[in-house]
Structures are given as structure tokens and as C-alpha cells.
Inverse folding.
């Protein structure tokens, strides 16, 4: 049995995918590498097939019609043979030493009657524009080196969240919770790290810098101009997250998990609002209004909690000057926290 399946969704990734794949190969027979070619127009498919031929039993090339990053993740879940599942973007990579330690720990979980549901590790922002690194860890939030539940988590700092880069789920849990990411949509990683959480009963945190997150390519999905141009997709993702759970009900029964999910959803509302303003078209501003109304109709109590959180007060200042101030506050926060 494979211990870990790693899906690499690829679209026109010939320039950087090999670095990603090579960082996973030291995992050996315990790690299954699923290269999902999303209808690429370059040599991505050829490179994927070459790796499968060279490393049979370890690398599997999956070819699909273009369906977007989310469908690449979905395909990985459908094909995964590993007990655990992780997604690595094709322009990112994993630290080899950290990977060895993570796989060893997952192997321990595999021997347990009830394997841990979610393993968390650190990730590192690799900023290409100024050649700096920023480690995102969780020592302040999670107990280290022990199995725990949501009742044991502490407060997350501002701009500190679980991202796709930091999580490794038990594969069957993703299937059991019915996770299905939308096609042809960016930013679906937010659904990936949100929808499964209430199904997670046991967690484990390793204070290791496992994931290396490359930031700075001009066409990258987190580039500000790109995000503003895809505001409709950001709103679509946020709506799916709103519909996924009754956050206020979760908060009533699991206060610490519910508090985290409330903060995450509030952050998504803030980002959607800000990039609607940055796009600054009648359509984008209309999407912002529509999204807030959607939340209000779904859950009025949740609407009030999100609307009047400090992170959203700055995104709802009326008028042109108010919108200008909102964007200025966002750019200042981005400069301080370097989150994209």
C-alpha cells in the first residue's frame, strides 16, 4: 500500500514541473506521484509520460481535457492509492529532508487502528521578486508532536490560516465528505482547506518546513491584476464555501473549530470585496453586493458576524474615497504580511 499520494495538477508546466517532480522522487515506493496533465498545449504531457515510464509504480501520468486546477485535484483523489493525499502545484516543490520525516510519521499512522485524519506542516513563501523567504508555521496554534483534536487548538494570528500547502488529509476522508471542486475555476484551494474540516476528528502537527510556495510569476493566479480579472471565480468559490456548512451551528458545538471557520470565511468575504473594488467595473462591484446579499439570505447571524469584523469594516466604506481607502489598506497589509 502507498502511504502518500501527491497530485501535481499541471497546465503548460514544462518550464518548472520537473523541479517539483524531482523533489518528490526521494519519497521512494511509499509515495505515489500523480501528474495530472490538464489538456496542456506544451510538452507537459510528454514530460509526464516520460517520468511514468522511468519510474513505473511510483509515477502515474493522468491526461484529461482541460478542466482547471480543481478538476486536477479531483482526478488525483479519484486515482489515489495512498492512505494520505497531498496537492503540490507544479511550480512549487517539497523539501526532501522534511518529506522523509513526514512519510515516516504517516507510516506510523498507517499502523494504527484509526489513522490520524489530518497532518499539518509548515510552508515557506519563496518570493522571487526580492529573493526572500517567509516561513509560515503553527507552533502558536497547535500542539507539536502529538495527536490532538480541535478542542486543543489555540488562536490563529492575523493572516495565519491553513492553506493547501500545509495540509495532508487522509484520502478516504476527502472521499467521505463528498469533496468535489468546481471545474474551470481558480482559488478552489480555499474549498479544499475548508469543506473537509468538520469531518476531521484527529490532527497532528509537525514543525517542519515541508512546502516551498513560489511567489512572483507574472501570470500567477495570486498576482493582484490576475485576481481582479478573475473576481467572478473568487465569488463563486466563496459562495460554495458559504453553502458547504452552517458555521454558526459548528461554532455552537465545536467552538474553536467554528471560530476558525468563521474567521476564514470572513477573510474570503474581505478578499472578494477588495478585488471587486480593485477591478472597479459595474460588474465587479455588482458581484460584491450580490455576494454579501447571498450570505445574508443564507445565514443572517453569520452575515452580521462577518460584516462587522474588523477585516471587513475596511472593505465596506461607501463611496469612491471609501473604495480607494479600502484598496490602500489591503496593499499595506499585503506589504506587511507578504501573503502574495
Amino acid at each position: 500500500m502507498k502511504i502518500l499520494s501527491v497530485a501535481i495538477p499541471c497546465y503548460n508546466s514544462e518550464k518548472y514541473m520537473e523541479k517539483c517532480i524531482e523533489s518528490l522522487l526521494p519519497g521512494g515506493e511509499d509515495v505515489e506521484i500523480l501528474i495530472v496533465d490538464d489538456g496542456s498545449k506544451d510538452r507537459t504531457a510528454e514530460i509526464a509520460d516520460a517520468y511514468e515510464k522511468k519510474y513505473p509504480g511510483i509515477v502515474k501520468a493522468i491526461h484529461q481535457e482541460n478542466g482547471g486546477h480543481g478538476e486536477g485535484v479531483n482526478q488525483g483523489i479519484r486515482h489515489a492509492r495512498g492512505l494520505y493525499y497531498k496537492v503540490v502545484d507544479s511550480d512549487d516543490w517539497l523539501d526532501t529532508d522534511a518529506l522523509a520525516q513526514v512519510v515516516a510519521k504517516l507510516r506510523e499512522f498507517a499502523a494504527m487502528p484509526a489513522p490520524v485524519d489530518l497532518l499539518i506542516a509548515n510552508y515557506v513563501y519563496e518570493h522571487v521578486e526580492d529573493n526572500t523567504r517567509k516561513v509560515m508555521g503553527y507552533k502558536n496554534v497547535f500542539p507539536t508532536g502529538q495527536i490532538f483534536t480541535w478542542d486543543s487548538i489555540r488562536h490563529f494570528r492575523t493572516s495565519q490560516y491553513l492553506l493547501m500547502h500545509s495540509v495532508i488529509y487522509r484520502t478516504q476522508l476527502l472521499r467521505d465528505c463528498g469533496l468535489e471542486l468546481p471545474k474551470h475555476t481558480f482559488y478552489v484551494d480555499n474549498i479544499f482547506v475548508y469543506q473537509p474540516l468538520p469531518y476531521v476528528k484527529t490532527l497532528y502537527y509537525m514543525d517542519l518546513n515541508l512546502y516551498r510556495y513560489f511567489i512572483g510569476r507574472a501570470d500567477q493566479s495570486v498576482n493582484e491584476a490576475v485576481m481582479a480579472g478573475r473576481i467572478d471565480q473568487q465569488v463563486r468559490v466563496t459562495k460554495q464555501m458559504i453553502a458547504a456548512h452552517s458555521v454558526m451551528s459548528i461554532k455552537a458545538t465545536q467552538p474553536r473549530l467554528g471560530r476558525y471557520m468563521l474567521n476564514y470565511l470572513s477573510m474570503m468575504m474581505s478578499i472578494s470585496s477588495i478585488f471587486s473594488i480593485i477591478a472597479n467595473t459595474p460588474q465587479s462591484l455588482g458581484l460584491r453586493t450580490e455576494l454579501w446579499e447571498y450570505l445574508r439570505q443564507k445565514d443572517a447571524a453569520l452575515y452580521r458576524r462577518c460584516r462587522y469584523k474588523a477585516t471587513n469594516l475596511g472593505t465596506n466604506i461607501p463611496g469612491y474615497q471609501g473604495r480607494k481607502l479600502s484598496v490602500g489598506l489591503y496593499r499595506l497589509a499585503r506589504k506587511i504580511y507578504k501573503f502574495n
